[in-house]
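Quick note —
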Amino acid sequence: MVLAQEFITLPPNECPYEVQRNSKFYPFFKDVLEPMDGTHIAAHISKSQVAAYRNMKGQVTQNVFAACTFSMYFCYVLSGWEGSAHDDRVFKDALTKGFIVPDGKYYLGDAGYALDDKCLTPYRGIRYHLREHYQSRKRYVIF
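Predicted structure written out below.
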């Protein structure tokens, strides 16, 4: 635990430089701290626990919650949750285990998280980045 605290630390309570310098994001996201997400990592466990660790795709995994800086450095990691656990449940547990979100600040999450005062998520049913998606398809067309 001591080693983790030395190398993985929560970001300062200020708007990241990557947001401040981009007029598309600032001042709209002036209270954002960093992005966060969950991922599934293969797990090798006893047969008696396989059901709890089986995720929606039928694989035996553990659900790992991570927050990182916009420079792609981890600032918080919580591992060990069953693969069947929902991302938002793991996030709520992280809030009880040292993951601090100061009042008035929030993290960016995907649709796997509930919208609340600590996590900003996309609007449901909105397709984002359509222009960027279309442009990327034009560049990489293979004949």
